[in-house]
Amino acid sequence: TDVSERLLKYAVAVGYDESDGGIFSRIYPDGEVDRNKYWWPQAEAMRAFLAVGDRPDMARRYRQTLDLVDSEMLDRANGGWFTGARRTCEAGRCGNEQPEPYHLVGMDLAALKVARSP
Hints:
Layout: H1 2-15, E1 26-27, E2 33-34, H2 39-51, H3 56-72, H4 86-90, H5 102-116
Antiparallel strand pairs: 1-2
Helix pairs in contact: 2-3, 2-5
């Protein structure tokens, strides 16, 4: 719909990190952007990029965000995800707990639907 397209366009223009990939944590009403990167916004951003269909601009952002998650958020030693990207966690903004699976399962389901579509 027009509304969802406008929302996605705004979120990408203001909240997406075009140089390193990934979506920033928050955009406040005054326009300030919290540039931390946490696990659930990445999962939901990837889900949104998959949902828009065959669009090269969103496919590029999906791959770039996937690369960010792969290099900075996957806990290879223990399995699962860290709660934030390396810079966010180094700044002391991440806990030691594993993220709950709600957003991750939604992202995985979206990816499976795309993989299974003709």
